[in-house]
Amino acid sequence: MNRRALLRAATAAGTALAIGPVATLAHADAGFPAKPIRLIVPFPPGGGTDILSRLIANELATATGWTVVPDNRGGAGGTIGLAEAARAKPTGYDIVMGQKDNMIVAPWLYPNLSYDPNKDFAAVAHVAYTPVVIVTRSESPYKTLDDVVKAARKSPDSVTYGSPGNGTTIHLAGEQFKNAAKVQIRHVPYKGSNAAMMDVMAGNVDLMVSSVPSAIGQLKSGKLRALAVTSARRSSVLPDTPTVAELGFGKDFDVSTWYGLFAPAGTPADIVTRINAEVNKLLAKPEVQAAIQAQGAEYKAMSPQQFAAQVADELPKWKAIVQASGARIE
């Protein structure tokens, strides 16, 4: 990828994702959709992205009569599915559930990524976001995040934290916390959340930085203790857990991951607008809100322009975060 070109695109008007590409095709077929819509899920079945994608597909079908077919195309941290979506014809019949890891972090993590988030996609609809939670085992001597910081300052690198993998948003949230608290805590990467979860509960690592959906079951069972969430405000699923910023570690500390629908660049503006409107109607329904929150996520509707602006704003910011972490995937 041409990184200079990517940065120039990122600093351009945020609406470029939603408006610039769609200008190449004037109008959609008035009968849209006349056939099934494929929703590419860039992760295997059963994970958080898959569950959320199927929820949206089923709810859209129920509300509109459309046929929306989830198609799992996992691999390489979600980048394989995103690459397939970028190559699809811009007709509105191929959309993808993207997220921060593969749209914002991946361009700075993978040296030969085949897609450009700003040029190859039209932002369609933001669906949800989820904070990251810092947890420890229930028997841990660390009762608060301040306990962790004091121990790390007394003996740098003596405290360890696990994550689902090197270069994930969750790993980078841990690195951001270390920077904000000015401490040295040793990162231990795992191949997925389950292995890291088992080791923190066994006491093999002191902490785990996790998505809320991955940790919520063990938190509710009492096997884990939540020390803080990394979002700007508390999670509705963990209302008694303070934010990192509340605890005084970084005034504007806010690290969360998000999920949203994208279409190939050039998809007609009226199709983008129509899908966005239907998804936003779903997000206004209490039963859909409850289903999203049951997964440890928070629903949030946006216009295509607002979602595009968020992507364009975050992309260059995360370059510095990835570079500071030293993470890289060949």
TrEMBL record:
Keyword field: Signal
UniProt-listed SUPFAM superfamilies: Periplasmic binding protein-like II
Signal peptide: 1-28
InterPro entries: BUG, Bug_dom1, TAT_signal
Pfam family, one: TctC
Cross-referenced CDD domains: PBP2_Bug27
Entry-linked Gene3D superfamilies: Bordetella uptake gene, domain 1 (3.40.190.150), Periplasmic binding protein-like II (3.40.190.10)
Family, per entry: Belongs to the UPF0065 (bug) family.
Protein name: Tripartite tricarboxylate transporter substrate binding protein
Species annotation: Variovorax dokdonensis
